[in-house]
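Hi there, hope your week has been kind to you so far. Would you mind checking whether the tokens look sensible for this chain? I owe you a coffee for this, so here goes:
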Amino acid sequence: MIIERPSSARGHVRTGWLESRHTFSFGHYYDKAWMGFGPLRVINEDRVAPGAGFPPHRHANMEILSYVLEGGLSHQDSSGGGGVIRPGELQWMSAGHGVEHSEFNASQDAPVHFLQIWIQPDRVNAAPTYAQQAFEPADRHGAWATLASADGRAGGLPIRQDARVLGTLLAADEVVDYALDAGRLYWLHVVSGEIEANGRPLTAGDALGFADEAGRLQLTGRGTGRADVLLFDLPH
């Protein structure tokens, strides 16, 4: 089964300093048909005004990934983690038995544009932890790079779930493949740009879910510039 999630169908929330697009139900946006996909619970595309952000708030038992597209995102948490996340970097905070954190635009002049991703962990009430990793764009040009994986065994950040988060950057006519296993779930999210996925045209914010599907997923870059694409390989 292939599930389509067009960008235009996502939830949309706007406040004075925040504009968010929600792939799945979150906060003020609720749709019982879109509560998540396997352990993938949240993909929020956020734009935060200069100098603004999320004051200290608490999370527990969630793997939280932040992926910055433009600008800088300043993070502080009660586990001792903190810093500024820039484009090309991924931040991981495992909330464990409970952690308080804040996120603010690191600039007083320019907005920050980022994805926040939540994955439910495979264990509960572990100790909170934090890490941040930079990824060379050249390693993703026309190829998959592992950005996060189960306890870091396959590379990338060491999330607490039997999952892999992969990324690629595709110029026009560049092709990457991924083998689908019917015993796994897959969620494909176009961060920016244009691609075709097994012949289906997709643009920024569009997503496809794959359940009980086997065979080859082939992505082809389209349009100008490079498309930025994430793939989540998840337990069923």
User: Anything to note?
Assistant: The domain at 138-235 is CATH 2.60.120.10 (Jelly Rolls). The chain has two domains: 8-137, 138-235. The chain has a mean pLDDT of 94. The two ends are 13 Å apart (CA to CA).
